[in-house]
Each structure stands twice: as C-alpha cells, then as structure tokens.
Design goal:
13% strand
C-alpha cells in the first residue's frame, strides 16, 4: 500500500514543477484534490487531505464470509456467491501461470467456480483517482476430489491401518491409495498424519523423520484435512492433530474418548470456541493415536471414576514431569490434574499449577488454583 511518504514525494514533484512554472512567469492560484476536488493553495495540505480523507484501503477477498489468506486450498466445489471482494477496483485472473485476464469484481466468484483443477492467481488492485494504488495477490490451489476416490482412500485406510499403527501399515496405505487419482491430496495428508504419529512414538527414523519434526508434519496434514469437514476420517485425524498441538477449538473429532477429554479441558477457559455437533451419519471405523495421547485419554477417563481418580492424578503428574514427554502433552496432563483436584493443596498439585502459570490457555486456571492453595495452606 502506498505510504504517506510516497504521496508526499509525489506532491514535492508537483511542487517542483510549479516552481518551474512560476520562474517562467506562469502562476497557479490553487491546488485541488484529484479525488473530491477540494482546493487549497498548498500541495502539502493536499497530501494531508488525501491521507486523512481518502485513505487507500488494502484489497480484501472473503470466502464464505471469512478473510482469505494469501494461499487458499479448495477441495470442495465453490459457489459463485461464496466469494466476494472489498476495496477492489480491478482484478487480474490467471490459471496455472497462463495469461492474465481482467475479471470484474462481481464475476470473480463465478470465474473461480468454473475451475475444476488448477492454481489460480488473483491480483486485486485498489486504484485511486490520483494514480496511487494498492495490490494484493491470492493463490487458490483448486483440486476437487471425486467422492468415489475419497471413499476409496478411506477404504484403503480402514483395511490397512490398525489402532496400533506400524510403519508397514503406513506404507501399505500409501500404496493402496495411489489409484484414487483425484484424491491424492487427501491421501497424502492422511499419510503425513500416520508418519507424524510414528515419529512421535519413535517407531520410525531417518533423515527428516526426527522426533522434533513431527509437529510440523502434523500441521501440514491438518491444513489439508481441514478441507474435508464432512468426512468422518478427516475429522478424526484432524482432531487427533489438534489435541497433540493443544489447538482445542474446532469441530468434534468423532472419537468419543478424545472428545470427552477435550470437553474436560475446555471447561477451564471461556475463550475457547469448541463445537460438539451430532455424529455424522457415516460411522468412523478406526483412527490411530500416538502413545502419549492414548495414555492421557485413559487417565482422563479414570478421573471420572472415584476409585481411580487419585491414582490417575498421580500418573498424570509423573507423566508431565517425564523427560521424554512432549511439552504440549505435559500441559494437558497438568491441566487435567488441576481440573480434577480443585481442593488439593499437595506439593505435586502446586507444582503442576506453577508450571502452567504462563500457559496461554491454562494460565488463568493455574493462577486460580495457586490462590486457592495459598488459602488452604494457611
């Protein structure tokens, strides 16, 4: 977006030309705003007027009412009415690096909806009467999968992947899903999800498969899987990923024990927007989880059993303190302990609260518990 300094320099150029005109005997009585016609005898005042009265807004593109990032993956058909633009005077439209054509703002949704597969680049321009302009590029990665191919990928997953995942099962799934040509992105995301679980559990190794790199692979998979909210398997895998990276907002996973644990954790924060809609008609057969998530879910279920609650809290405290526990998992374990034992003032619970004080999600819960512990210890 042009800055005030840019506009100021332009007006200095105008001023210089006016000085030349005055030197040659010409005179100018007033300067006027190129947008509204307001007049004054100072180009500097015109510059200030443009900055305050006619600010140049950045072009915006919205899909289904939400602002669009610079890269947008599209895996389901777009309706023409789902796309709208703001602060935009002209749009350049190109597909797969081909020639650019101008598209009217009212027609951009229809143009995008007509593309079945391809990379579409939109360059949105906002031009002002004085020649100043702002531009923004948005790239749509459009790959619409055939429902039959999506079903084939999920069938391959159900037939090759067990709850106790192994590297050979991940390989078998990748091989079996190759024939689903229009759903390669979906299959690739599920395969990344499986490899990330194996990385975290230490069941696979090699260059690029280090333990420290599993969160990045999970995030890559989540970006793609989020495009399929109507597919039970995609939602389950996305739910496991969100749980792993402590991203608790979003749709329910459809995995009962996972969703119950998320509900427990989100009780502590009113800032979390978590939806738990009805189960989708298509039943989820199976979705693997990593060992740490499995342990947390088991302990979370035991917290609801009076005879097991105390032992579960102790187990979670020890789990959180273990050197090989991922930081995000330690946070969940400690939060569950504090939620299950609001009246306890033991050292282990106090230490759990102290470790969470600066956590963006559970810091408020920790501070509340610490204040409570202070009262209980007196």
């Amino acid at each position: 977006m042009p800055t005030y300094g840019y506009l100021y320099d332009r007006f200095h150029e105008h001023q210089a030309s006016l000085d030349e005109a005055e030197t040659s005997g010409a005179a100018l009585s007033a300067a006027s705003c190129p947008v509204c016609g307001w007049s004054t005898d100072s180009w500097q005042e015109i510059g200030e007027h443009l900055r305050t009265e006619h600010p140049l807004g950045a072009p915006q593109l919205l899909v289904n009412g939400r602002p669009c990032a610079s890269d947008k993956a599209v895996r389901r058909p777009l309706s023409a009415g789902a796309v709208c633009v703001m602060n935009t005077t002209t749009i350049d439209f190109s597909v797969d690096g081909g020639p650019s054509t101008s598209v009217d703002a009212a027609e951009v949704g229809e143009a995008l909806a007509a593309v079945g597969t391809g990379h579409v680049q939109l360059v949105l321009h906002n031009e002002r009467a004085d020649g100043a302009s702002a531009a923004r590029a948005v790239v749509f990665d459009i790959r619409l999968a055939d429902v039959r191919d999506l079903d084939a990928v999920e069938s391959a997953f159900d037939e090759t992947v067990s709850r106790r995942l192994t590297p050979s099962e991940a390989d078998s799934f990748a091989e079996r899903s190759l024939t689903a040509t229009t759903a390669h992105s979906y299959a690739g995301a599920l395969h990344k999800f499986l490899i990330a679980l194996l990385q975290k559990d230490g069941r696979i190794g090699g260059s690029g498969l280090e333990l420290s790199k599993y969160p990045a692979r999970m995030n890559e998979a989540l970006h793609e899987l989020s495009q399929y909210p109507d597919r039970p398997l995609a939602r389950a895998a996305a739910g496991v990923i969100r749980f792993n990276i402590n991203l608790f907002g979003g749709l329910a996973s459809g995995i009962p024990e996972l969703d119950r644990c998320v509900e427990q954790l989100t009780r502590s924060s009113s800032d979390l927007d978590t939806n738990h809609p009805e189960r989708l008609p298509s039943e989820l057969k199976s979705c693997p989880v990593d060992d740490a998530t499995d342990a947390i879910l088991q302990a979370s279920a035991d917290l609801d059993e009076p005879r097991r609650s105390r032992a579960a809290c102790t187990q979670l405290v020890r789990f959180a303190s273990a050197v090989d526990t991922a930081p995000a998992d330690a946070v969940k374990a400690r939060a569950l302990v504090l939620l299950a034992s609001p009246e306890s003032a033991s050292d282990e619970y106090r230490h759990a609260a102290e470790a969470l004080v600066h956590d963006p999600t559970f810091g408020g819960l920790a501070e509340t518990r610490l204040r409570s512990f202070g009262k209980l210890s007196r």
